[in-house]
Write a structure and sequence with these properties.
6-stranded mixed sheet, elongated, 12 strands, Rossmann fold, 434 Repressor (Amino-terminal Domain), about 350 residues, 6-stranded parallel sheet, 3 domains, homodimer, DNA-binding
DNA sequence: CTGAAAGCGCTTACAG
DNA sequence: CTGAAAGCGCTTACAG
C-alpha cells in the first residue's frame, strides 16, 4: 500500500521516538527495561511515555515476540451455572490474578457462548493466539479439550481433573477426601443407609464423587446400592428433587451427602414439608460452604476451603508448565488435589440407635 | 534479525499457501470471503484450511487491519461482589454474546484485580489495543473512565449511567421507575413512613435510587426525611443491618424499599428475630427478583427483568456507536433505561389503617 | 482472477 | 550506549 503524500500524524513508538529525537530501538529498549540503555536516556523516555500516555500496541508486540502476556480462563456458563449464580469463578480468578500480576500477565475470561460448542470455541481461541496459555474449567469425564491443547502445544492447566487429562496439569477440589470424611463421620454416628447426590451432567467431578463414595462404603463393609445415588441438577431445585426421591425410597436412607452447596437449601425445604427435620430425622452433609446456605436451621455440616488459594495453586500449576516461568515454579507434580476442611454443624449431629 | 541458513518450517498463511501452491494474497482473500476469487480456488483454500486447522493469527491480523474483533467487558469484582455471588454479569454476558456473535465479534471479560485501580487498569487495556470496544460496568457517580474512553476514541458503552457519562452511551436498569412504582404502591396501601436502603459505596445507581425516592415522595406530598435513607452494603448482611437500624428509629417506618435483592434475606431474618413479620407488621419491597430470595416467606414483592435482554440492548447500544456497525443499528438515542416489572408478593400486601 | 509487494507497530540481533 | 534494519503474520491497493 503506497501512502499518499499527506504526512499523517505518526502513532505509537515512532511518534514517541520522534518527540524525543531518538531512535525507536532505543525507546523500546528503555521501555522494556533492557540493561544497555543510558540512565539519563531511560529517564527521559519513561517520563515522555508517561506524559504522552504511551503504551505499546499489543498486536505489534505479540507479532514480534510471539507472546501476548495474556492468560485466558475459559468458562462455559451453561444455563445451569448462570441460574445458580455462583461466585466460584470470580473468587478463583482473584487467586489466579494475584499470582499472574507478579509477572505482568493479564488474566482474561473467555466465556463460551451457550450456543457454541466448547471444543470449537476453544479451538478458535487457540488458533487466534490471543493468549499465551489457557485454563479450562468444568472438565468433563471425557474432554477432548485436553488433547486439543496438548496438540496445539499451548501451555494449559485445568480446573478439574478428567479421564482425558491424566497426564496433564490440573488442580481440583478434593472430592474424594470430602466424601471419605463424610462417610466416616456418618458411619461413626451409626448410619449405614447413606444416600448421595450426583450431577446429572457428565462433569467429571460427579464421577470422582460417586467413586469416592463407593470406596468409602467398601472400607466400612457397607454394600453399594445404586438406588442411593440420586442424580439431579446442581441447584436448589435439584436439592428439592433429591429430597423428593429420597423420601420415596422404600428403605429410606438415614443420611445424605450433597455434592453442591445450594442443594441443601432445596433439600431442607422439601424434607421439612414432610415434617422431617435435618439433624433429627435425617443426617445431611453438604459439599461446600455457601453464604446462602449459612443461615439454614439446623446449621449445615459442610466443608470449607479457600477458593482464592485454589486459584493461587492453579496459577502456579500453570506457570510451572510454561517454559518462561518453570524455573521460578519448580514442582514435583503438576497435579494438585486441593483440601477442604470439615465444618461440623447440627445437620448430622445425632446418633442413630443401631439395631446391633 | 537475519535468520540462519536452516530452512524453518513455515507457519501460518505462508505454509497454507505453499501447500496449495498459490500466493498468500489469494489465500487471504479466499479465507476472508472477498468476492474476486475463483470459486474453485476458494473451495480448495477453505478445504485445506479446515484440514490443516489453519486460523489466522490475531496479532498479524490486528496489526494490519487495526481491529481485533474482540469486545471487552470490564468487571471490577470487588470483594463485596465476589462474596455476594451474583450471576448478574454472566447473564448479561449471554445477551451481549448473542448479538456480538452475529458479527463474529468475541466477547472477553476483563476482570480488574482487587489491588489495581480500575482507572489505571482500563488505561492499560485501552492502550494495548487488545479490544476494539469496551463495556464498563459498576459505574460510579463520578467516573473518570468515561473521559478516558472518550479521549482514547475507542467505542464504548456503560452498563449503568453516571454523572460523568451524560453524553455517552449507556444502558441501565430503571431504578427510577422501580422506586416510583414501589412508593406509589406503598402509599396506596396507606404508608407514609417509607424507609429506603442505599449502597454505602459511590456506585451511581445508589444516587439514582435515592433521588427517585425523593421525587416520588414529593409527588405524594410526603416530606423527605434523611434518617429514612439507610446506607448499608449490598449483601445479606447489609440487609440485616438495615433492619437493625430501622428497628431502632424513633418513629419506626411502616415500609422499606430495598435496593438489592439479597438484602431481603438478611432483613427478614433480623425483623423476625424481633417478632416482626414482613407483610403483617412491616411492608417490604425489594429491587430485583433473585433465585435465593424466592423462597422467603411471606413471598417478597419485588421487580423482575430479563438481564439477558438487557445484555442484548447494551450490545446494540454499543454497536450503534461503532462506525463499522452503526448503519446496522440505527438509533435515535444512545441511552437506554431498561424497564422492570412488578412481581407482587405478600411482603407488602396489607393496608395500613390510616389515622386520617 | 491472481501475484508481488508494502506496511501495520513493535523488538532485537547486529554493527558501530 | 545507540541507530538502522529485519521481520513477526497478516491484509489489501495495485499491476497485470
Amino acid at each position: 500500500m503506497v501512502q499518499g503524500g499527506k504526512p499523517r500524524p505518526m502513532k505509537g513508538i515512532r511518534q514517541l521516538a520522534e518527540h524525543l529525537d531518538i531512535s525507536i530501538g532505543t525507546v523500546s529498549r528503555a521501555l522494556n527495561g533492557k540493561p544497555d540503555v543510558n540512565d539519563e536516556t531511560r529517564k527521559r523516555v519513561l517520563a515522555a511515555a508517561e506524559q504522552l500516555g504511551y503504551v505499546a500496541n499489543q498486536s505489534g508486540r505479540s507479532l514480534r515476540q510471539g507472546t501476548t502476556n495474556v492468560i485466558g480462563l475459559m468458562i462455559q456458563s451453561s444455563k445451569e451455572t448462570v441460574e445458580n449464580s455462583d461466585n466460584f469463578f470470580l473468587t478463583v480468578t482473584g487467586g489466579l490474578q494475584s499470582v499472574f500480576s507478579r509477572h505482568k500477565l493479564d488474566l482474561i475470561m473467555l466465556p463460551c457462548p451457550h450456543d457454541e460448542d466448547p471444543y470449537e470455541y476453544l479451538k478458535r481461541m487457540v488458533a487466534r493466539r490471543i493468549v499465551d496459555a489457557l485454563i479450562i474449567s468444568e472438565t468433563q469425564r471425557v474432554d477432548k479439550r485436553f488433547d486439543l491443547l496438548a496438540k496445539a502445544k499451548i501451555p494449559f492447566a485445568a480446573l478439574g481433573r478428567s479421564l482425558s487429562g491424566t497426564q496433564h496439569p490440573w488442580a481440583d477440589l478434593d472430592f474424594d477426601g470430602v466424601v471419605n470424611c463424610a462417610v466416616d463421620r456418618l458411619v461413626a454416628h451409626g448410619h449405614r443407609r447413606i444416600a448421595i447426590s450426583a450431577p446429572s451432567s457428565d462433569i467429571n467431578l460427579g464421577f470422582v464423587f460417586v467413586e469416592g463414595y463407593r470406596r468409602a462404603l467398601e472400607r466400612h463393609g457397607i454394600p453399594y446400592d445404586p438406588a442411593m445415588v440420586i442424580r439431579a441438577k446442581s441447584s436448589e431445585q435439584g436439592g428439592y428433587q433429591v429430597a423428593d426421591e429420597l423420601l420415596r425410597l422404600d428403605d429410606r436412607p438415614t443420611a445424605v451427602i450433597l455434592i453442591y452447596e445450594l442443594m441443601a437449601i432445596g433439600l431442607y425445604r422439601r424434607v421439612m414439608e414432610s415434617g422431617i427435620i435435618p439433624g433429627r430425622d435425617i443426617a445431611v452433609v453438604s459439599f461446600r460452604e455457601a453464604p446462602r446456605a449459612k443461615f439454614l436451621q439446623p446449621a449445615l455440616t459442610c466443608f470449607r476451603t479457600s477458593l482464592h488459594d485454589l486459584g493461587v495453586e492453579l496459577a502456579e500449576v500453570l506457570l510451572s508448565n510454561m517454559p518462561a516461568y518453570s524455573q521460578e515454579y519448580p514442582r514435583q507434580t503438576r497435579q494438585t488435589v486441593w483440601p477442604l476442611e470439615l465444618i461440623p454443624g447440627e445437620s448430622d449431629a445425632f446418633y442413630l440407635k443401631t439395631a446391633k
